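Wait, mind explaining this?

_____
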Amino acid sequence: MTSRAFANTEQLDPKGFSFALASSDGSKSRGKEKEPTEEEQAAIDANMANLKLKKSWETALGPLKQVPMQAFMLYMSGNSVQIYSIMVTVMLFMNSGNAILATNQAFTRFETVSTDKKKKAAGNGNLILPKIVFVLAQCVLMGLGVYKCSAMGLLPTTHSDWLSFLEAKSVAEYSSHGTWVQ
C-alpha cells in the first residue's frame, strides 16, 4: 500500500485502491476506466472462480456445524414421547429433507457463466464434490433424527416389536401327569 500526505495527516490508501485511476489533477472523480487486458481479465476470472469454490465449500460444510447444536437440542428434549420432542425430531427431518431437495438452488450462486452467456463454464464441475458433501452432511443430521426416534422407542428394533408377525408354535405332543390325553 502506498501512503501520501493529505491535509497534514498520513493516510494509507484503501486496499485495492489505485492512485492511477484518480484524475490527473488530484481530484477524487474518476476519469474513463480502461478495459482490462485479456491477461488481467483471465486473472480476475480465475480469482473469482477460486473465491466461489471456497464459498461453495463453506456452504457444503455448514450443516456439519449444526450437528452439535442439533444434538444438544435433541438431548434436552428428552427421550419420552411428548409433543416437544416429537416436534423437534420432525423439524430435524423436514429441514434436512428440504435442504437435500434444494441442493442445486443452494449452489446456483456459485456457478460461473461463460462469456457467451449460453452455456455454463467448465469450472462448474468443481461444484459436484461440495454438493455431495452437502447432501452427506444433511444425511448426518437425518441420522441424528433416526437415533432420536430409536431412543424414544418409535422404531421397531426389538424382538417384541415383531411378535404379531410370528406364527404360534405348533405343539407336537401333549403330556399330563399320569393320564393320557388325546
About this structure: The chain is about 50% helix and 5% strand.
